[in-house]
Every structure is written in C-alpha cells, then in structure tokens.
Amino acid sequence: MRQWLHRFAPALLALLAGLLGVAGLIPRPAATPAKPAADYVIIVGVAGLRWDDVNATDTPAMWQMAQGGAIGALSVRSARRITCAGDGWLTLGAGNLAVYTPGAVTPVCPELDVPITREGGTRPGSGATLPDQSEIVSRNRNLHWGAQPGALAEGVRCTTAIGPGAAIAAARPYGRVDKYAESLDDSLLDACALTLVDVGEIAGNDPVARAADARHADAALASVLAARPEHSVVVLAGLSDLDATSRLHVAIAQGPGYTGGWLTSPSTSRPGYIQVVDLAPTALALLDRPMPVFAGAAAATSDSGRPADVTAAVNRLADADREASVQRRVGTNFFQTLVVAQLLLFLAVVPLLRRARRPAGPQTRRPVPRTVVRAAEVLLIAASLAVPAALVADLLPWWRWPHPGLAFGGITLAVMGFATFAIAFLTRRSRAIAPLGGVAAVAALAVAFDVLTGSRLQLNGVAGYSAVVGGRYAGVGVIGLGLLVTGALLGGAALAQRFERRWRPFVMAVIGAVGMVVIGSPYLGADASGAVALTAGVCVAAAMAVGGWLTITRLLWAAAAALFVGSGFAILDLFRPEEQRSSVGRLLVRTKDGTAGFIARRIAEADVVTTVTSPLTALVLGCLLYATFVLLRDWGGLRRLLGVFSPVRAALTGLVVACLLAGVVEGVSFNVLGAALATALPLVVLSCLRVLEHADDRTPAPRVAEETLES
C-alpha cells in the first residue's frame, strides 16, 4: 500500500488540484433584475448621440436628466459591422442583434427610409403598417443570432411609435404598429405603456453641425420630459453609429429605480456599460411583462460608484469613448509591426544558431563575439515582452495625446526597456530556461493583476478588447488568455524543472489549477471556454512532464483527466444566467434544443474571418515555418532543449493544445496561439542559443552534465 501511494501520490495530488480548480468556478448568483417600478416606459432614440455632444450649455435637458438619472456608455453592436440607424432601432425592437439596412454599407450610412402605410389618414395616434416587415423578419431569421423583429412589441399590449425609426422598433412581426405619429405629440405619451420616440440624428464630425443637431434633439427631449406621465421611466439612447467610425454612445435612464449611479447589465458585467439589446428586457422588466428569452441581453440596473459630480462622470464616459475610438487603429498597427519585427529578428538569429555550438578541441571557425550573442539575447527578451508591455501601457492615458499612436508606442517601448533590463540582468548567469520561465510568469502576473483589479487595462486597451466591438466587456480577453496560458504552462515548467521527476506533474497541475481559476472564475476572468482549453493543455503537459513523449497510455490518461475536469467546467457554465454563459455553455444549451448548428456555423465563420484578417495568423504561420526549417534542424537547438528540459517540452505541447482549442471554440482562430507565441517563441529561441553554447561541454557525470546545460 505504501509503495502504491508513493508511486501514485503525485498523480492523485494533481487530480486534487484540478478538482479545486473546478470548485473555484462556481457561478456567482444571478444579478437582481430590475423590479417593476413604472407604469410607463418612454425610450427616446437619437442616432449618433455621443457623450462629447452632451453639456450643460447646448443640451440642458440631457444634462439635467444625467444629473438625476443613471448613466452609462451604450455599445450599439448589431448584426452588422457598421450599425446604421435602422439597424439600431431594429435591434432595440428585437432584443437581439439584427440587421435592417439592406445591401453593402459605404463608410457613411444611407439615409433612413422607412415605408409606412398609415391607417386613418394622418391623424396622430392612428395605427400604421410596415409593408416590408415580412422581408425583414425572414432576413433576420436566416442569421445565426436568431433575432425576432417585433419581440419587444409582442411583450406589451400596446406600443406607441413617434417617428420613422421608432416605427421600426415598435412594429410587430407582421408589421402592425399600434399607434403612430410622425412628430411628437404630448397627448400620445400616456396612450400606451411603452412609447418609442425618434428625435433625429447627430451625424458627421463638424463640431458646429453636431452642436446644432444636439440642440434640436435636446429641445424634443425637453418636451418629452415636460409631458411625461407620472410613474414613468424615460430612457435616452444614442442607438447607432452613422458612419464607419464606431463609437460608444449615450445611455441615460431616469425615473423610479434610476435616480443616480451607473447603468449596468449582466450582459456586460461592467458598471457604466450596457448594450442596445439590453433596452428591450429593461422595458419589459419595468412594466412587469413576461420576459422572452433574449440571447445575450438582460435588464439594465443602476449601480453605485459614480462620481457625485456629473461633470466628472460624463467626462469619464467621453474619455472611454475617445479611447475606444482609437483602440482598433492603434492595435492593428501595433500587432502588424510586432509580427514583422519578430519574424525579422528570428531570421537575424539564424546565423547565431548555426555557430552557437563550440565543440571541444581546435576551433575551425571564428566564434561569434559574446557581445553580439548578448545583444541578440536582449532583443529576444524585449520581443517577448512587447505584448505584456502593450497591456501595461494603458496605465497612462496615451489616447488623450494629439498623436495617440506615437504616445502609445513611446510608452510601450519605455515599459519594454525597463522590463528587459530587469530580466536580462537577473538571468544573465542563470540556467538556460530562466528567461523563459521568468518572462512567462511576469506576463501572466500582469494579466492576473489586471483581472483581480477589474480588468481596467484590458477594457478598450490595445492588448485587450473593445466595448465598441462588443462581445466582452469584463474579464480576460483573447490576448490576455494567450498570456495566461503561456505563464501557467511555461512558468510551471520552469518551476517543475527544479523538482524530482515524479513531482513534476503535481507542480504543473497546481500552477495550471491557479490559471484555470483566474481564467474561468465568474468573479475574475469569466471565460469558461478558456478554462476548459487550459485544462486540456495542463493535462497533456502533466502527462509529459516526467519525460518522454506523449504515448498512447499517457494520452488516454490526459484525455480522461481533461474530459473529467472540462466536463465540470461545462456543467458549472450551464448554471450561469444566459447572458453570462461562455460559448461552451451556449453550445450545450443549443445542442439540447436542437439549434446547435447555428452556433457552430457562427463560430466557424468567425474563425475563417479572423484567420484571414488577423495579423497574428501570419505570426503563427511564420513561427511554424521557423520551427520546422530552423529550430528543429540539427543546429537549431530545439530538439536538444526539449530533450534536456522535459517540462518545457510538455509545456510547449500543452500550450499549443490549449491555445488551438480556445481559439477554435471561441471563434478567434489563431489569435490566442499568436499572442502566446509572441511571448513564448523569442524565449524558446534564446533558450536554444544557451543550450547550444554548452552542447559540447564534457562533464564526468550525467547529473553534472544536466546542471551544466541548465546553467
């Protein structure tokens, strides 16, 4: 019995670590829904309205409403990349991502043209019909999101629409609008429990023209506020963009239950942020109407923490919009530059790899100067720190500078320089894999610290995710997931190398379990799909950590452990509210009701689009070619590195498995693996250089030989 325990204790402890990781992913309780507190709900839509349009001088009604209500940044994501006015209104009425504008959209949205057939002439409050509603319903039924135009109107007995945009949102699935008026009429605000009001658009970038449009919309809003019935909630929403410059927009709710604070929603899990799709369930919750299933949407509530000074609160939201508006352009330039720079650096290191070995005896060729090798090592460390430095750069408001791209680049280079000096100095005389483990751990700790403090660096950050694009507003993003997987596996490998062989799986499992909790916990990373992927990678790495390759027996044990722990993650994901589920949980639910094909096709199409458009795809392909034709050659050093340091071999295998699985399941293709390789491969090349340098050392004992190669 003692011998059995002695042999299997590390494996049992590794399994226990995995189970503890699952326990850390217990779903948090569902958010308290908005309580029925209103007899009337009035939603006022202004296409294109941004927070920098709102001020006490030009828009006094909006300013007063912001002072007394709950405010937030509105993400106007729809089923189109560019959300035009009709798309925003239809998404509001469907409570789901929908598309109204037909055909291709140029950088500027076409004017909103809504065919409306009036009943009873032009008398305000008479009914109306949208003759093309059946076509719109059919078009959205064929999309992957399954939007049902008219879902909001079907949830209430009577709906009033004022203006053409409002008619789109208020039309029932068969095109009927209960009450309609072309212009604002105070007598209609209490005709139905739900009233939708279209007060125009604010388009372009001319400050003078935008201010004039904002004053016009503000005057209409003032009339609504003056004539609003008692016990009503008024919601002001900048429902859409009007051109290709996607932005965050205005969201204000004022009335019972919304007397201050930030607007928030379980769909974003971020105070101060809601989505257009959240407006429909918010209205139904306030009116105490039956709530249909809105995919990825939830009722907005008021959260505390907003500054007492409304000016400071509005400026914070305008600043978030400013950062999000430049994030995509700066991020694209950063990753394109990073890919080119790293691939060129890898090519420049090839001659050093070929001449790195120094065999004993007379030298037939001149060795590379030590200063050149040292400079190459420093550059490789700097390259591996580029993505973590881009994350840390968001500590400073680079987006407020006149040239945000240059400001971001300068801050990132400064962070890289400082971190490179520290890592290079601390590991100059250490073992070959010391930089690999050190940088990987630093990168993962940077992401973990950000997650523990609210993911402020990743939100709208270059190395994070954009609230404009939508899909994620809190937790760990795609790039952060790649860094965490790299840190958990390579950092764990560097630590496991210091232990006896039989304890290495346990060390890998413990570090992996911590990573699973950070990634998958709903209070932290909130990415159950990423946690499942990391589970698979950790199980593979633990099976290989004692040495040797992945045999059939090890593969079966690893697959069984991954299936066991991963199933636990997936089951826990099912207990989360609909709007908080990951792609794994949504896929399981759709499998049960027979609609999993829509989700699978949507994910597959997203993978294809990301593969074609992402610069990280080029990095992954370049790294694959480099490893095949350079590092795996006899003079490349990778085979020797993997032979001497078995935990590193296990970690790299697990890294590829985890990142590929996460990328495919989450619809981001090679982006997770690209972020991981951008940090890992420069360090692997550096380790190959150091291993080759000692490849021909002569030592009297195998243990001494291993220690020499590690130093």
TrEMBL record:
It comes from the Bacteria. The chain crosses the membrane at residues 334-354, 375-399, 405-426, 433-453, 473-494, 506-525, 531-550, 555-575, 612-632, 644-664, 670-692. Keywords: Membrane, Transmembrane, Transmembrane helix. This is Uncharacterized protein.
